[in-house]
Amino acid sequence: MSDTGAVKSEDTPFEGGPMDGRVLPVLVGMTGHPPKTYRIPVPDPDGGPPTVLVYRRVPRPAGGKVFARWKYVHDPEGGARSRPRWPWSRPDATPGGKPDDADG
Q1: What's the CA gap between 26 and 22, in Å, rounded?
Q2: Closest among 2, 70, 64 to 32, alpha carbons compared
């Protein structure tokens, strides 16, 4: 096997939500960018399903001592996962009514 080299990470600040003000090392991909969405599962103390905190990557304003090009901003609604938009994919929205309904 070949050596993959050192795994690169970037100290990235988080804004909003429970992670506000924290800076975490986030792994960067082959392009040198961290993931567009950062999900943090938080276990439920009662043993239920974990709560997932969702943060979205946004460009960080230039100026001052900038140690990261990006920051993560809390997305309280969590949003839908983005997926590739292929030309042959159908849109998410479906028209109302039944397929054979002339009135729609």
Answers
A1: 12
A2: 70
Q: Once rounded to an integer, what is the mean pLDDT over residues 74-90?
A: 74
What is the spatial distance between Cα 36 and Cα 57, in angstroms, rounded to a whole number?
5
Distance CA 76, CA 87 (A): 30
pLDDT confidence of 54, banded at 50, 70, 90?
Answer: very high
- Cα–Cα distance measured from residue 23 to residue 68, given in angstroms and rounded to the nearest whole number: 10
| CA of residue 36 relative to chain centroid, distance | 5
Q: Which residue has the tokens 């600040």?
A: 13
Token pair of 30 as six digits:
């082959």
- In sequence order, which residues have a C-beta less than 8 Å from that of residue 71 and are 6 or more positions away? 12, 13, 14, 15, 57, 58, 60
Q: What's the rounded Cα separation, in Å, for the pair 99 and 28?
A: 46
Element (H, E) at 29: none
